[in-house]
Amino acid sequence: MARLFHVPLSPFCRKVRLSLAEKKIEVERVEERYWEQDPDFMRRNPAGKVPVLQLDGVMMSESAAICEYIEETRPEPPLMPSDPAQRLEVRRLVSWFDDKFHAEVTSKLLYERVNKKVMGQGFPDSRNVKDGAKAIKYHIDYMAWLLDHRRWLAGDVMTLADFAAAAHLSSLDYISDVDWNRSDVVKDWYAKIKSRPAFRSLLADQVPGFPPPKHYNDLDF
């Protein structure tokens, strides 16, 4: 069986988990306190980051590369379009969420509120939290613009771009940092992707000291 070394609220780990679940690949999840730099884990990934996936006898790291490997070796159901231009758009949006959204929002909200406490790194930086709360409005508005023109973020079918976005937003939703009332179309998109069987394991996550809000498991939130 495949093994995934992960942290439950990490959006990068969640993106991989969604891809694995959508492809119906059974995986053993191993929670990894990567910040402690355990020698065994550092041998698995000298970069000292999660996720790390052991699959097909290969130890792989970097979430984007992992998801591409899964897609190439298990093409059904597809999470990447066949058209090169559409594939470009998926990759652009995956990068948008994993780079820009992460830097401007996730790192300033989730990492300040949760990661610092879990890692014993002190209290949240109020300035970062304020900046993240402001930036997420811009990103939700951009998603709304995309969804006004498309059924899903990258086009007419669900793709890895939707999983990348949902991975970040679900992590933030766990700590009630998403204003779902800002956009009905984004809220509807999230409800649609949240209802997929691939999402079930994410909704069951529990982080000690951080109980999820009541609406977190509600499919009709």
TrEMBL record:
It comes from Sulfitobacter marinus. Homodimer. Residues 83-221 form the GST C-terminal domain. The keyword Oxidoreductase does not apply. InterPro entries: Glutathione-S-Trfase_C-like, Glutathione-S-Trfase_C_sf, Glutathione_S-Trfase, Glutathione_S-Trfase_N, Thioredoxin-like_sf. Keywords: Transferase. Pfam families: GST_N_3 (PF13417). Residues 1-78 form the GST N-terminal domain. This is Glutathione S-transferase. PANTHER family: GLUTATHIONE S TRANSFERASE D10, ISOFORM A-RELATED. The keyword Methyltransferase does not apply. GO terms for molecular function: glutathione transferase activity.
